[in-house]
Design brief:
This protein is mostly beta strands. 0% of the residues lie in helices and 58% in strands.
């Protein structure tokens, strides 16, 4: 069984920064792509950023130039550095990972709240 555990959310003023972390734990697994999604109240879940096993990245237009996704393969951890935060970034942030055990499945973390005050 593989688990994803997020940390780093919180309350920050507009213009501030936060760094989210998501660590995968378990046995006998390998991680393919890793992503961050977010869901604001009353809105659909949105893909924020993706990083492949090779380190290629993609971002939603709404966060380009402000957010940076990275990963530490030795620690099975993905990060989301969020700078120049805006009130519109307020949401629950979820990390996901495409993980190979005996099969390939997508795993989700429990979510971490990010609140940006104006």
């Amino acid at each position: 069984q593989v688990q994803l555990v997020e940390s780093g959310g919180g309350l920050v003023q507009a213009g501030g920064s936060l760094r989210l972390s998501c660590a995968a734990s378990g046995s006998s697994f390998s991680i393919n792509s890793m992503d961050w999604h977010r869901q604001a109240p009353g809105k659909r879940r949105e893909l924020v950023a993706t990083i492949t096993s090779g380190g290629s990245t993609n971002y939603a237009d709404s966060v380009k130039g402000r957010f940076a996704i990275s990963r530490d393969n030795a620690k099975n951890t993905v990060y989301l550095q969020m700078n120049s935060l805006e009130p519109e970034d307020t949401a629950v942030y979820y990390c996901t990972a495409l993980i190979t055990t005996r099969t390939i499945n997508r795993y989700w973390g429990q979510g971490t709240q990010v609140t940006v005050s104006s």
